[in-house]
Amino acid sequence: MLSDGSLSIVTFWTLITDFGDSAVMLPAAVTIALWLAAGGAWRAAFVWLSIFGIGVVLVAITKIAFMGWGVGSAQLDFTGVSGHTMLATAVTLTAVYLLSRGLPRRHRRVLTALGLTGTLAVAVSRVALEAHSVSEVCAGFAIGALVTGGFVRCTRRLAPPTLAPGLMVAVLAVVCVAMHGHEASTQGLIARLAVYLSGHGAPYTRAIYAGIA
Fold first, then answer.
1. pLDDT tens digits for range 159-191
2. pLDDT(69) > 80
3. Most-buried pick from 13, 162, 164, 184 (CB within 10 A)?
């Protein structure tokens, strides 16, 4: 039985990790796309959804490969990329980039530091809650950073949206608060898809893969 102190720690990390759930981050990603499109930056909106979608697919592929066929690394304790970490990294850092465009370098650095702090908090929460290993959250952070980097590289010469960035931040805040605590069923869907594609009776689990069960 967990002590009150242990329960408090779990509650704290759960509060943090819920911000990275796809129930929060997917609507947030769509919010960024809608803000770009509403501001006339249609090409940037398309690029964002395309690159973000590639990141999501990469995460899903690693999970399906493990759950369906046991593809992973026991040495690295890797069973699939952390979706929470990837989503939080991509969405947060992209939002920070869009918000800080045109601001003095000092302000951009402060906003970037804040964004990284929030992203790393989600990553640490996944390890603290034993939902993912260090290698899995590192992979999630790397893919999320690549999503943002790809978006920045592909859109840096495009005209910025005409809507004020503050509007995007306000809507993102509302979305995150409203959806926080909700849990999407994406993990279950991926597990069922992996079983269907592989033809196995049940998905591989970390315990089975490690030879514990």
1. 899 999 989 999 999 999 999 999 998 999 999
2. yes
3. 13
